Each structure stands twice: as structure tokens, then as C-alpha cells.
Amino acid sequence: MAVQKVEHPMLDYKEKTKSSERFMEEAQQVMPGGVTANIKYFDPHPVVMKHGKGAKLTDVDDNEYIDYLMSYGSLVTGHGHERVKKAVMDQMEQDGTWLFGTPHYLEVEMGKRLKQHFPSMERLRYTNSGTEATLLSLRLAAAHTGKHKIAKFEGHYHGGYDQMLISVNPNVESAGDADTPKSLPESKGMHPAHVRNTIALPFNNLEACKQILTEHKDEVGAVMIEPVQAGFIPAELSFMKGLRAITEQLGIVLIFDEVKTGYRMGLGGAQALYGVKPDLTTLGKAIGGGYPVGVVGGKEEIMMHSAASQGSDVFDSSTSKRSSAKDVLFHSGTYNGHPMILAAGMAVLDILEKDLGAALKRTEALKNGINETLRKYGVKGEALGIGTIFSVILNNDGKVRNYRDLQQTDLATRKEIDFRLLNKGIYIKPMSRYSVSTAHTDEDINKTITAYDDVLREVYGGARF
């Protein structure tokens, strides 16, 4: 098919976002690279936002966007939901403070609701982020098994700390054989020991995983997995059930990282869809309604390692001589179970119990519209994902089952399409996944499909259209 592209989208983007560019120049004088999280940056400069409401964002140049990044999936109810706002204000008015520093009623009330939706969480603990939740889950697994090596899957992300910042986005040429991927560090400053102690596994390859885990069964205490890689590449059911059987057989704790998928696949997360019960689950993002929160929950016998007891507070000098590390699994945090955040979380669950079904249907409508438009222009590709998360995969000749398959797709054209969509008021950080919220409307979905048609015509249409 002949290709007849219009003006390069980067030029239009820079023209439309001049104030963002000026802001970032100033920001670089304050923060390294101008951002406080690497993920917020993209070339030539990120869009700087000044207002959000519902499914819309407005940038500092007064461009309005339909937002599908939704703070990387955290805003499952959209920007500034009135019910969430009211819950936060009511908590502060009713309780008179937004932080007790003591146990409080919302810790129990929120926990009961989470346990209803995630029956595998027999006991749970709060953290301040999904990253902290996955970190605590590894400590719990090591305490339970006495084994300190961990295994994770190539292409899966569980937080920006050394143990798990391994083989997240590796160079495939350096990553070894697909059946036995090498563990590769993703950052400067990491201790080489983590490369030795974190084993990379191939996603959706059960036989290879069985062989690797069996070889290291006396060392590996935990396997952590995103049941849906990056939120949009699903595990195959036979793989998930097989992994559960293997880890049980080998005495390895199976951890489902549902920070992305929790309350976005459905009220019970990916584990409810697969019918597989992990030993531990981590949650974050969606349950905070835009506030920082994390949760670890799972089997009582594992979670009870963290139970507070005599000598379990390392800051209590009166007990220091009567306890030792072998008796204590330390976990603490000033803001764990923050009452204001849990009030927001309770409101989010109220909204999702009522409106998540509609958001799931709108996501399917958007995916179907994109897929039909791809077919219209003869593009091999699909909107791939489960629940309210998906990504657009281009020019794949076969099924995308894992990280390496994804690297064989047309990533360059996907990036170009994303910039063209930005210029038409569809906000997605280039190359990111889409997250649909309860705030998105049928009109938003239809406008997005129309924008896709315009963009694909520009990129692929050619003279015949």
C-alpha cells in the first residue's frame, strides 16, 4: 500500500506545546532532567498539565485532551471525582485530623472490603505504594521459606528497587536464549549481587519455567508475576495454572503483582478471572483513587510473620535486648493506612461496585473501534488487553505472548501514531498502555475512534483513500 504521510507530527507537537517546552527548560534548573520520576519524561519534552476533570486534561498551552494515561492507571474513577473528594473532606471534618499515627477504624473497614473482593487475602497490611507492597511481599516470602533468591519474568515491572529492577526492558540481543533469559540490570548504581540473586523467567513458557525453578528450588523463595504483563499481555490460562502447581510442588511462594490489574480486570482482579489463588497479592494504583497507597495480602500463615509482637519494634530500646532478627519481620511506615487515603479508597470501591461494568463495556467498544479502523487501512495489529487496560500492537505477524514478541512489533510507527493522536487531543504518553476510567463517556470513545481513523489515514492511507 502506498504511504502518503502528512507533515511530521513532532513539528506540530512542538508548535502546540511551546509553554510546556519553556516550563521544562525552567524545571531543569530545579530537578535533574526537569522531572521527579523518569517515567514522566519523553522527547522532545513532556506535556505539562494544569487542570484535570473527569476524563479530560488541560495543558499549560490550554490544549484539552481526552486522557487515557489516567496517571498510569491510578485514576480508575477519573480526575477529581466529586464522591472521592467528598469522602476525603468528610474524613477530615469528622475525625478532626488527617493522620492519627495510631490504629483507626478505616484500616479495618477498608480491609474487610478488600478481603471480600480478594478472598486470597486472609490477612493484609497497608503500604504507601505498589512498590513498597511488592518489596514487603518479598520479605514475607523469604521469612516464610528461608530462601532468599527470587524469580521474576522478563519484561515485568514490580518497582524501581534493586531486587526487581532486573530484565524489565532488556536488549534482546544481550538477553540470551528465550528459554533461559539472562538477568540484566536496568539502572546504574545497582549492586551486582542482585543480578545473581534475581532469576529471570520466560513468560508464557511453562516447560522452561519448570526447568529453571526446579534447578533453583533450594534457593528461590518467591516467584513474582504480573498476571497480565505490563497490564495488557495476558498470561495463558494453562500457563497460570501450571505455574501455580509448580510453585506449590517446589515450596515457592507465588506472588501476584496486581498493582496494575487490581480493580481494572474486574472487582476481583486477574486472579478472579483466572481462577488461580496466589499465596500473596500486592495492590496499589486504582484503590487509592489518585492517592499513594499499597496493600499486601495473602495466606494467614505467611502474613502472620509480620504480626506485631514483643520486640517487633526496632525503635523500642526497652525490648532490644530480649529480641533478635530471627524473631522479627519488621514492617512499618508513618503513613501506612493513612486515614485520608483509605477514605478515598472506600469511595473508589463504592464507585467501582456500581460503575466498573460500564467502564469495561466502553473499553471493549474502544478496542473494537480501533481494531476495525486498523482493518480498514489494512494494518496488521490489534488493541490487546483485558479489562479496562489495553495497548495497541502494530504489524505483528503472530500472537504477542511475551516481552520478546512485543519487541518484534512496529514500535516506531506506534510512537508516531501516539504523537499524531496527541496533536488531535488524545492524551497517551507515547508507547504507554491505555487505561479507561468510569469518567470516560460514549462521546469520548467515539471521538477517540474518529481521531484514530484520521491518524491511520495519515500514516497508512495512501492515494486510494
TrEMBL record:
Keyword Aminoacyl-tRNA synthetase in record: no
Keyword annotations of the record: Pyridoxal phosphate
Cofactor annotation: pyridoxal 5'-phosphate
GO MF annotations, alphabetized: pyridoxal phosphate binding; transaminase activity
Pfam family, any one: Aminotran_3
Record-stated family: Belongs to the class-III pyridoxal-phosphate-dependent aminotransferase family.
Name under which the protein is recorded: Glutamate-1-semialdehyde 2,1-aminomutase
Organism for this UniProt entry: Alteribacillus persepolensis
